Amino acid sequence: MHKHREHITPIQLASIIISTMLGVSMLAFSKFVVDGSGSGSPLASLVGAIIAFIGLLAVVLLGKRFPKKTIIGYNETILGKPLGRFINVLIILFFAILMGLETRQFAEVVAGALLPNTPIQITISMMILLCAAASLQNVATFAYIHFFYMPLILLPITIVLISAFWDIETYHLFPIIGHNSSFKEFMSGGLVVTQAILNFFVISMVIPFMKDPKKCIKSGIFGFWIGSFFVVVIVIMSLGVFGEEEMKQMFWPTLVLGRMIQVPLEILARIDALLLISWIYGVFTTLLSYYFVFVRGIGELFRFRHDRIISLVGFPVTFIIAIFPQDIYQMYDFILQVTFYGIFLTVFYPVLLLVVAKIRNKGGVSV
Amino acid sequence: MRKSCVYLYMIISSLILTGCWDRYELEERANILGLAIDLADEDEIEKEPEVTHRLNHFPGGKTGQFYKITAQVAVPGKIKLGPEGGGGEGSEKTAWIIKTFGHTMNDAMANLQQQLAEKLYLGHLQIIVVSREVSEKGVSEINDFLRRDPEVRRTAWMIIDDKDASKVLKAAPPIETVPSLYLSDTLDNAVRFGKLPREYMGKFWIDLSDDGVDATLPAVKVMGNDRLLIDGMAFFKGDKMVGKTTPGEIGAYMGMKEKSPGGYSIIVSIEDEEGVYLIKSLKRKSKTAVEIRDGKPMAFINIKVEAAIEEKTNDSKLDSDTLKKVELAANKKAEEICSELVKKLQEKGSDIFGLGARVKAKYAGYWEREVNRDEQWSNVFKEMEIKVKADFNIRRAGMEIN
Amino acid sequence: MIFRKKHIKNENQKGKWPLNDARDSLNNRKLKKGINDNVADVKNIFQNDSDFISRKFQLCGTITAEALFISTIVDTDKINRDIIRPLQEKRQDPITDFTPLTLDKKQERRKKDFLQWLLDDVLYHCAGETAEEMQSVINALLRGKTVIFIDGAEEALLLDTYKPEKRGIEQPETERVVRGPREGFIEQIQTNIYLLRYRLPVPEFRVEPMVAGNATKTKISVCYLDNLASKELVNEVKRRVNDICIDRILDAGYIEQLIQDNPRSPFPQIQNTERPDKAVGNLLEGRVVILVDGSPFALIVPAIFNQFYHTSEDYNDRWLVASLVRIIRFVALIFALTFSSFYITILSFHPELIPAKFVVAASSGRAGVPFPVVVEVLVMEVSMEILREATVRMPQQVGGALSIVGVLVIGQAAVMAGFVSPITVVIIAMSTIGSFATPSYNAATAFRMLRFPLIILSGMFGLLGLSVGLMFIINHMLSLRSFGIPYLAPVSPGNLQGFKDSVIRAPLRWLKERPAQLHPQDVTRVASGVKKGSANTLQDNEGGKSDA
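^ inputs. structure came back:
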C-alpha cells in the first residue's frame, strides 16, 4: 500500500534529482577527476555527465512507459520473475553498500576537518538515525524535504564558486584535452564524474508517485542538467584555482576552496562553516534517497510493507558497512570500485531494459 | 516508534557523553597567532625533551637539521574590547612568546604541547616567519605539517626574514594589539595598497606544486624594533629560496603579472631638466604572450600602466606635451627595472612569472617533448628571451595644475 | 480524502457525564398531564437551589399555569413584560369553552392548537417552542429558558429568556496592533457571531451550531463561507468536533488539542485569534472558524506555518513596509531558535570562525568565568524563562517593576560577579527578544522550547550537532499536516503564487488568488485594487486621457 495521498509535482522531481546528485562526493570527487584527466578535467566531466545522461534518459523513458510501477515492479514485468528479482536484489544491495560507504566518507570528512576527537561511530550513527527517521514518512514528505533543502544547498555553493572566480589562473585550465592524451586516462577522469552522479537512479523508485508520470521527462532532464552544471563548475573552479598538481595532494579540494575565500566585512573570518553546513544538508538528502530506495525496495520486493521494521533493521546493516573500511584510503578504493560497477547497473542496464521492453512489447504507451 | 527511537538514542548518548570530546572552551585553547621558524644554534640543541623520540635516536639519521620554533600566544584577559583597557601596557603583556625546539615541525609542536596547560590551537595563525637560512634549505618539510593540519588557514601569511625570524615576532608597535595581528594587518593592507601581490600561504603552495611556476614570498626586515619593512620578495626555485628582489621590483613584478591596484612610484627625470617627477601607478594591465620560435620559447610582456603625478621637484609647467615626455621617460625607466629583474631571475633560474605554465598550457606537445619537468624548465628559462615593453599613461596630476 | 486523518471512534460511550438518581429516573420521560406532577418532578431536582423560581399564574384568566426559571440566567424584566403579562390578560380564546379535564380527540387537537395559538397570537416574546420530554424541559431550564407548564397540556412551552452578563468589547490583550480595529472577541458566543456577521453580510456565511463537553455542554459554532470553503474540509471539521468526548470544554484550547492532526508535535496546527478582522480574513480565504462559548479565542483551521508570523496589520499597511516588517519578524524567529546554539558552536568548537581580533578580546571576557559556555547559556536561558513566566503571572503593578529588576539583576550583577560573561548576556537577550517579536504566542512557545534541545546538541557536537538538530526540526515540520494541508506550504509543495504572501507581502493588486492548498471552491479573489478609469475624476475629459 503506497502511503501516497499526496503526489509529487514535476518541480519536486527535479529537486529530488538535484539534491541527491549534490551529495557527499562533491567534496572529494574533483581530486579523482583531475588525477585521471589533468587539465582536461572540465571536458572530461562534461563527457562523464553525458554518459550519465544516457542512463537518466533510459530511466525516465522507462518511467513513462510504466507509470504505475517502480523499477522493482517493472524489472519483474520485463525480465520475468527470477531474473527480475535477481536484478532487484542487486540494485537494493548496491544502494545499501553505497549508503554505508558514503556515510563513512561523510564521517571521515567530519573527523578530518570538523570534529577530530569525536568517535566516528557517533557521527555515523547520527546520520543513519536521521535518515532512518526521515525515511518513514510518505513520499510527498520525501519530496518536500528535497525541495526544501535544495536552495540551502545550492546557494552557499554558488557563493563559494563565484568568490573563487577571482583566484583562477587561466594556465591551470589549458590545454583543454589534458596532458595525458591517452584516451583511457581521459575517460578515467570522466567516469569519476559519472560515478559521482549516478545516484540520479533514485527517481526510478519515485516516478510512479507523481501526479502525472508522463511529465517526468522534462523535469528529469532539467534537474539532471542543473545538477551536472554545478558538478562541472565545481571541477572547473577547483582546477582553475588549484591547478593539477596541487589537487593531487589534497583530499577534499572543494572544502579547501571554501576555506580560501574571504568575505568582505569580516563578519565571519572563514565561511567554510557555512559551506560545511550546506554540505551536511546535501549529504543528508543524498543519504536519505539511498535509504529510501533501500527501505522501499525491500518493502516492495518482499511484499513486506512494514517500513518501520525494515528501517530499524537497515540501521545496523548500514552501520556495519560503514565501519568496514579500515582506513581512509581503503574507503576511497571501495567507493571507486563499487561505483564503477554501479555504472553498469545504473547507466547501461536501464538502456538494456528499455530495449528489451520495446522488443517484448511490455508496458504502456509506446515511447 | 520513531520518537521512542530518538528518545532511546538520546538516553544512551547522554550516558556516554560525559566529555563532549571536541569541546574546548575558548580559554582552554592556546591561540597561537604567530610562528617563527629558525635553525637552531648548536648550544641550544641539548635542550630537547624526549617527547617523540629518544635522545639522539632520531630515525633516518637526520640529526643535523634542528629547528627553533618561536610561538606567539595571545594572552586572554589582557586585551579588552571597548573603551576600557589601561593605556600602554605594552606587548609583553598582551602576548606570550615561547621557544621550542625539534627536528621537525610536529616534533617541536609536540614538545611545546608537553609544556603548556592549554591545547595548542592553530586556527587563528596569522603569520609564519621563516628565516632565510631555513628557506634556503627548502621549505617543503615545514609545509607538510602546515598542510595536513586542518586548523591552519590557507589565508595566513608566510614571510621570509633575513636573519632572525623570532625577532620579527617581537616587533611590537605601541598600538595595543598582539604583534602578530599587527604584522598580518601590515601585509593585508600592503595588498590593498597595491604594494604586494596576494601571495598568501595557499597561493604559495599552489605555485610550489605547479609546473612551470616558481613561488614567491614577501620578505621583511625589522626596523627599529617596532615595525616591519616590506623588503622585497623572496623568489624560489623549487622549494629553496634563491634570492630576493628589491622593494621597487615588486612593482615591476606586479606590473608584469597584472596585479591591480598599482601602488608603487617611480622616479623619472626628463632630459634637459633638473628635478624629478614622482609617478605613482594606479592601475596595471598586462598582456603576456609566449611563442615558440625555432624550437625555443620566447615571451613578450606588454605592461600598460595608468599613473598620476604625485610630486614634482622643478618649476616647469605641466601640460600634455610634458606629460608625453614624462611618459616616455617612465616607459624607459620601467623597462630598465623590469629587465634587471628578469636578468636577476634568469640567473637563478626562477620563473616567478609563470611563463613555463603558459608554455605548458599553450604548447602541450613542446612541453612534453622538451621539458616535462619543473626542474628542467629552470634551465630552459635561463636561456629564454623575454621582451618587456612598458606603456605609461599619466592621467592626472593631483590638485595642482603646475 | 485530503483532509481526513486516521481516527478511531470512541464506541463504548465511556466518559459520559454521570447522572444522579433523581435525573436518572427522568430520562426519556414524557410530560404528564397534570401540572402538579410535572412541577413536582422539576422541583425535586432544583428545590434547594437559591436561584430557582416558580411562579403560578392564571392563563387567560382561567387556566392554571406555572412558570419556572432560574433567575440568575434569565432576564426577569422580559419574563414579566413579555411572557407573564400577555398570558395573564383575560382574552377570548377563539377556541371556546376549553375545559381541560374533558378530553376527546377533537379536544386533543384543540389543545395543540391552543398552545400554538398562544405562541402565535398571544406571546410577544419571539423565541418559543413546545416540548414533550422532561429531559428537554430540564435542559431548557438550565439554558436560561423559561418553562411554562399548563394544566392539562402534555406539552410545555419553552421560551428563550437567556441574559448573560458580559464584559464590553475591548482591545484584545494578546494581539495588539498599531493600526487596525480594536475590537476583540469576548466570552459570549452571540457577541462573537455578531462581530463576524456585521463584517460579512453575505448570505453564504454559515454559522452551524454544535455542542461539546458532557458537563459544560459548550456551544460551538462552526463558521464558514458556503461558496468558498471546501466541502470536505467543513465536513471533516464537523466530524472531528463531533467525535470529541470529554467532560469539560473550558476554553478553545481544549478543542484545539482534541481535533489537531498531530498532538505530539510541539508546533501548533490550529491558529487561534482574538481579533474578528483576522478571523474574517481567514474565512475569506476558505478556512473554517470555530467559535467556542466561554472563550474569547476563535480557532482557525487549517493553519500553516506562515500564519504564525503574519498579523492582520500587515494587510493594512503599505506593501513595502509590511514586507520589511515581515522579514524582520521572520529573522527574529530564526534568531530566537538558533542564535544561542550558534554562539555555543562558534565559541566552543570552531573559534576559527571568529575574526582574529575579536577572538583575543572575547577570550578575555571569558577569562574569569568558571563554567563552560554550554552551562552558562543553559543557566541563563532557564532563568530567562523563569523570569518571563513570573512577569506574566505577576499582578499588574508589580510586573512592570519586576522586569526591570530582573534585567538588572541577572544582567549586570551576574556579569560583575564574574558569573557569566557579558557576551553571553547579550546573546541571550537578543534571542529572547527575538521570540517576543513573533505575534503568535503558541508558535513562539514552540520555538522557545525547541531552543533547548538545539543548545544541548550543539554543546555536544558543535556544528554537526546544530545541523542535525535543525534537520530533525525541519524534517518534522515538513511531515506535519494540518487537516491534510502541508504545514510548510507554500514552500513545500512549491506553490509560486503562495510566495507572494509569505515572507513578503506583495501589493494587494497582485494577490489575485486564494491560497491553493486549501482547495477553495473559487480560487480567484476579486481582482483587487483600483478600478481602471481616468485618473482625475473631476476632469472634464478635455485634454485628459480617458480610458474608454
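Residues 189-315 of chain C form one domain. Confidence is low (pLDDT under 50) at residues 7-12, 96-103, 541-548 of chain C.
thumbs up if we can close this ticket
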